[in-house]
Amino acid sequence: MLDFGFSEILLTSVIALVVLGPERLPKVARQIGNWVGRARVLSRQLSEQLEREVSAEELLRQRSRPTSPAANAQSAPTLSPDPIPPADPSPVMTTGSVDPPAPHAPAPAPPADPAAPTAEVTPSIRPPNG
């Protein structure tokens, strides 16, 4: 990563002490330490998220890859959702009223924000230029 020797760190510390003074140097060092810690946490979270995305993508590729029946017989069963059974072609008589399933409709729009500006424009009264 970064190659800092003892002499570079010592020189930087002396310059920081001279520029910031002994009162402000501990506060600034603490702030820099907090920033470095946050950067490390964010870096770790980013790498973990990327690893999860890559593994999910690999799983999708494996599922979509066609396989031969002989390979399926030799390999272990894969985890897949249960297949939907075919519809029964024979009509079923029911008593009473049965509502048909509702089609998928788009979600209703959220209510308007009362604090949001409206489209109405109020005319401003200006004195005539003249």
Describe the protein's architecture and organization:
The chain has helices at 6-64, 69-74. It is an all-alpha fold. It has a domain at 22-66. The longest helix has 59 residues, at 6-64. The model has no long low-confidence stretch (mean pLDDT 74).
> Considering DSSP H and I runs of 4 or more, what fraction of the residues is helical?
40-55%
Structural class: mainly alpha
Assign an overall shape: flat
Largest sheet: none
Strand content: under 5%
- Unreliable spans: none
What value does the average pLDDT take? Answer: 74
The gyration radius over C-alpha positions equals 34 Å
Individual helix count: 2
Distance between the termini: 70 Å
Task: Provide the succession of SSEs.
Answer: HH
